[in-house]
Amino acid sequence: MNSRERVLRTLEHREPDRxxxxxxxxxxMRARLRAEQNDPEVDxxxxxxxxxxxxxxxxxACPPDVPKCDWVPRPAPDDIAISVEYTRRLHERGLAxxxxxxxxxxxxxxxxxxxxxTLTLPFDDPVRFEKELERITEWKLDxxxxxxxxxxxxxxxxxxxxxxxxxxMSPEHNRRWYKPCHLRMVEHFRRIRxxxxxxxxxxxxxxxxxxxxxxxxxxxxxxxxxxCIDIRLLKREFGRDISFWGGVGAQSVLARTTPEQVMExxxxxxxxxxxxxxxxxxxxxxxxxxxxxxxxxxxxxxxQRYGAYPHPGTRNADAGGYPAG
Length: 325
Description:
This protein is of the alpha/beta class.
């Protein structure tokens, strides 16, 4: 089973040969690998045999003399063509492909208006706010829709709606203002390509919103920040209806811990999240300098040792040596 088959199978809530995985390393880790291998061209994801790659179609930067809220660039045709070819080559290698991520609707509103005004405008000037969200959503339809046309397996949208212990806004506020925008995206992408999988990124606490994400047709919740939510509850209550991508605590499992603690933390996460498919193993955030090189190695070794079906979380006696794969 190749990586793409493995990822697509788990997203159908069926068990593949092993748990698919990836990791977003810090630049320091990329440099460390290049130094360790004495190879300036070595690719981190290739070396550790990650199952998913990302395709990024660049957007032009906002000129300094243009207000942010007047700058809504679309991907250039030449850049889209490059992404099409890159996606094709990744698929030929048997790899799953996800889109890049360019901020959510709420995140972009904050980028345009600031945190305070984004939270107060719906009450102070709801007509204006609705028009601005409409502009942002139309922009997102084009930007992320281009990825769907490129042929990615997973289009990656989202919004950071969670804090460490609660939501940034009430569920009712989200349902009034942001859920309709996310629903429009899902419906638009499915019109372009019914088979595309849609991942929704949200850091922090998000449990309260999962029924809403399922209702609008989201396939995958990412980042599944284990320090903020009960991953056992997530798998038990929602694991039949939505897949999870992440779940390995960047703070609690990977940062300032020993390799042995990392191995055990990854093992427990696999044990909880992997039954019946529907799980892509990954840290719940891009790794920072707080995560040591040794912890990154231990993550990959734990996937190798404990990631095989039919019983992820138990040791695979046939696991080979480092690196994981």
